[in-house]
Write a structure and sequence with these properties.
heterodimer; A: 483 residues; alpha/beta; TIM Barrel; 8-stranded parallel β-barrel; 3-stranded antiparallel sheet; 32% helix; globular; disordered C terminus; B: 392 residues; 14 helices; disordered N terminus; zinc (chain A); metal ion binding (chain A); Queuine tRNA-ribosyltransferase accessory subunit 2 (chain A); tRNA_ribo_trans-like (chain A)
Chain lengths: 483, 392
């Protein structure tokens, strides 16, 4: 007995990316576009979209059950440096993640070690996003990475072998980035040239080595001017697109995309992932206007840690000449203490359906971890809705108009957030010389926190003002309880 | 008709007060352990029960939905902390702590302790919180306090304060006020306090002042002395108890309810509670251990991959992130809360099947596999209620 079925495509093992709709007009070089990125076994990602940024293999403050239940996120960025620290007790022990056993629910070591739900597309890079600057430079065959136990070198061959073992859906090969110059400054032209040459060499090594077919490669595009890296980029276009080895680009500065469109248009057939860490949605929109398809957004984690609830939509609400709206609500402000409305009126996320501003304000005041969890859920949901609106507007050919309205409707930058952040951990920052003495410690001393509130075992002077007690030896009670 | 038949077939007996029904559904034929159903304004809970502590209206990183998924239907809030943050005005404005924290099940609040000024203030605050079970303000001394006169004074004052609490309690029809038995380690004083408190007929009764550093033998004597005197058809709550051995022994001694911050606090230090004892996941030993936190555990982290809701969390991942990412603390908290609730679920099933002594022995063998080093306090306390741990 047979059942008539539509002819089915065999389960493809390759990544597929198709551009569904584009705002490209005659004469324009690069433009916003709608597409779909599909990896075998994963939930397809409609683009433009964003992926979550993990820290040590987890989305900060959100357990995997909450990711599956409450987030629409379909992809996550992982950094190898989060997994390869040298154990201080056991120096010879290889990083445990490489031996994590797999199962149908956790099909690769990266999934099984981190408990990441299997519908999430995994993207592996060497360094955290944003990366902690390293005082040590890169060498001809290795880069400097920052682990929980300090800086160490990661060679191109080690990285290749790690990617082969971990089998992420997408790997970003090593790039020679300047990680010791202050943020915001561009490398000297001599240094920039070497960055391009090394990255070019490394990519050639990468593609000449056997790599698991289940991993797609997104080659880095360096944050340097096109003329300095044109040789590298033309090799990508001319050698690795025809050989089908190159599946996408990991763009460190999306402002280069118009140049790519002019000089290497074939590269724009690939999905473009931005690693530029935009600090606000206006920048995201600008990069989408260039043609960026995917964003890794560390911004969301930072916003949640700052006690902010994102509060913008795309398209922006119709404005009537009113002053620009804030991009986020600062839940630490005392004015929210009795506000029983959701974080954002239009939001349907778990945090907004189940809780209100008053509670989240309280959680931040009390430094309860749930505050950051709920903000993460809300902020990721807000960003998903933002990208959904962008996709619709590109399809409707209203994107450019809406982008302009959005820029008028909202403030240009995020508020800073007055709340105290979660404790910083060693792998998140490198203390600069003199900072500690200059009173710029990243964390408050732990004892202050304990004094504030630590469960219910707070040592608080007994102030039972009942008259009988005052007369008869309160002091004894205090003494006794100390024993 | 079906309901009537069921009631007749069982030996169930129950007692009700304005905002609570206590239904005794099983008794151990050897020990004093009991299984019961407690119906509170926000639903039914099965006793014996462990109640996790959501000190500041949040259970250490878990969403109310996650806490609910562990099976928890009754948890604690601390009156003192809620009085400071968010404060009584906010609680009144929002409409109580259930609404405030999005928890639709039961809440129990402590009295706020000596930080509050008067019984009236404590009641007023707990009325604003709206907890399903409120505790009277009591005068707590450490049980090891040497001054007997001072101890008696504290006990007597606690009785007087109960009267003031009862008088000040605004909503007896929707919130239950429990009394607290005091009297230190003096068993005669405890008996006297039981008589006084029982006479005031609160819907439930707590045994207080324990877990303050007294010898475990003394702790057990106090619990046993009190449970002997207490009315059968009221819930008995031993305050501040949370180590698994203490829970199991206290159940054998006839107690029904327990609370402690230890399981959730120790989770944040990287410790997992298991049937084989507490394991510190930060130890190098677990760095490449890809087993579940506890083999055979049914919590979301541990249940076998492929089962509904399984997260497939390994010891290696907890080790990787313990004291680093908050997620590791959340996962261990999920596990530890599950462990404590499940321990009480198993005890309850054993009591109903009248297999409780076998359950107790199996529990202690899990912790002390050589069968040798049982703590003597547990051996003695259990012997007192008919369980011989050292026997075959």
């Amino acid at each position: 007995m047979t059942v008539d079925t539509e002819p089915q495509e065999p389960e493809s093992t390759a990544m597929r990316f198709e551009v569904v709709s584009s705002a490209l007009k005659e004469g324009t070089a690069a433009a916003a576009r709608v597409g779909r990125l599909a990896l075998p076994g994963r939930r397809p990602i409609d683009t433009p979209n964003f992926i979550a940024v993990t820290s040590r293999g987890t989305l900060p403050h959100v357990t995997p059950d909450n990711i599956s239940k409450h987030l629409q996120v379909s992809g996550a960025y992982f950094s190898l440096e989060d997994f390869v620290e040298k154990s201080q007790q056991n120096l010879s022990r290889p990083p445990p993640i490489f031996s994590a056993p797999t199962s149908t629910n956790h099909p690769t070591p990266l999934y099984s070690f981190t408990g990441t739900p299997s519908h999430i597309t995994t993207i592996l890079a060497a360094r955290r996003l944003p990366a902690v600057p390293s005082p040590i430079g890169n060498s001809t065959k290795s880069i400097s990475v920052f682990t929980n136990t300090g800086f160490q070198n990661l060679s191109t061959t080690d990285y290749l072998s790690a990617a082969s073992t971990l089998e992420p859906d997408i790997t970003i090969p090593l790039a020679d980035l300047t990680n010791n110059s202050p943020p915001g400054t561009s490398p000297t032209s001599k240094r920039a040239l070497r960055m391009a040459e090394r990255t070019d060499e490394w990519i050639a090594d990468w593609f000449s080595s056997p790599l698991s077919t289940s991993t797609s490669t997104f080659a880095p595009v360096l944050p340097i001017p096109y003329p300095i890296q044109w040789e590298y980029l033309s090799r990508l276009a001319e050698d690795y697109i025809p050989s089908s080895q190159l599946s996408g680009l990991a763009v460190h500065d999306p402002d280069i995309i118009p140049d790519l469109a002019t000089h290497q248009p074939s590269l724009l057939s690939l999905p473009l992932l931005s690693l530029s860490n935009p600090s606000n949605p206006h920048l995201i929109l600008r990069h989408i206007a260039h043609g960026t398809d995917l964003f890794a957004l560390p911004l969301i984690n930072a916003v949640s840690d700052a006690g902010l609830a994102l509060n913008f939509t795309f398209p922006a609400p119709p404005s009537s000449g009113s002053p620009p709206l804030p991009l986020a609500v600062d839940l630490s402000l005392p004015s929210f203490s009795t506000s029983v409305t959701p974080l954002s009126k239009s939001c349907t996320c778990y945090a907004c359906k189940s809780h209100h501003k008053s509670y989240i304000h309280h959680l931040l005041q009390a430094r309860e971890m749930l505050g950051w969890t709920l903000l993460q859920i809300h902020n990721h949901a807000t960003m998903s809705a933002f990208f959904g609106g962008i996709q619709r507007s590109i399809k409707d050919a209203t994107f450019e108009d809406e982008r302009l309205s959005f820029s008028r409707a909202y403030d240009s930058e995020m508020p800073a957030g007055v709340g105290e952040r979660p404790r910083m951990r060693g792998y998140q920052y490198k203390s600069q010389g003199g900072e500690e003495n200059a009173g710029k410690k990243k964390n408050k001393p732990a004892w202050q926190k304990e004094l504030a509130v630590e469960d219910d075992k707070v040592e608080v002077p007994e102030t039972d003002g009942g008259r009988e007690l005052q007369e008869k030896g309160v002091g004894e009670v205090v003494k006794g309880s100390g024993r | 008709m079906w309901a009537t038949a069921r009631r007749m077939a069982s030996t169930t007996r129950s007692a009700s007060s304005a905002a609570l029904t206590f239904e005794l559904v099983g008794k151990c034929s050897t020990t004093r352990a009991r299984a019961s159903i407690l119906t509170l304004p926000h639903g039914q809970v099965n006793l014996p029960i462990f109640m996790p502590v959501a000190t500041q209206a949040s259970l250490k990183g878990l969403t109310p939905e996650q806490l609910e998924a562990t099976g928890c239907r009754l948890c604690l809030n601390n009156t003192y902390h809620l009085g400071l943050k968010p404060g009584q005005e906010v609680l009144d404005a929002v409409g109580g702590a259930h609404k405030f924290q999005g928890w639709n099940h039961n809440l129990l609040t402590d009295s706020g302790g000596p930080m509050l000024l008067t019984p009236e203030h404590s009641m007023s605050l707990q009325n604003s919180i709206g907890s399903d079970i409120m505790m009277q303000l009591d005068d707590v001394l450490v049980t090891t306090h040497p001054d007997k006169a001072r101890m008696r004074e504290a006990m007597e004052r606690s009785v007087r304060w109960l009267d003031r609490c009862i008088a000040a309690h605004k909503y007896p029809e929707r919130q239950n006020l429990f009394c607290i038995i005091q009297g230190g380690l003096d068993l005669e004083m405890r008996r006297e306090c039981c008589r006084e408190m029982v006479a005031r007929d609160t819907p439930g009764i707590a045994i207080g002042g324990l877990s303050g550093g007294e010898a475990k033998d003394d702790f057990c004597k106090v619990v046993a002395t009190c449970t002997e005197q207490l009315p059968e058809l009221k819930p008995r709550y031993v305050m501040g108890i949370g180590y698994p051995e203490d829970l199991v022994v206290s159940v054998a001694l006839g107690a029904d309810m327990f609370d402690c911050v230890w399981p959730t606090r120790t989770a944040r230090f990287g410790n997992a509670i298991t049937k084989h004892g507490v394991l510190n996941m930060k130890r190098e030993l677990y760095a490449a251990d890809f087993g579940p936190i506890e083999e055979g555990c049914g919590c979301q982290c541990c249940r076998p991959v492929g089962q509904e809701g399984s997260l497939g969390i390994t010891r290696a991942f907890i080790h990787h992130n313990a004291a680093k990412e908050t997620v590791a603390a959340h996962l261990l908290t999920l596990h530890n809360v599950w462990y404590q609730l499940d321990l009480m679920r198993q005890a309850r099933e054993a009591i109903i099947a009248d297999q409780f002594p076998a359950f107790v022995k199996k529990f202690f063998v899990g912790l002390y596999p050589d069968g040798q080093n049982y703590p003597s306090w547990a051996v003695n306390a259990l012997r007192g209620v008919g369980i011989e741990l050292l026997g075959r």
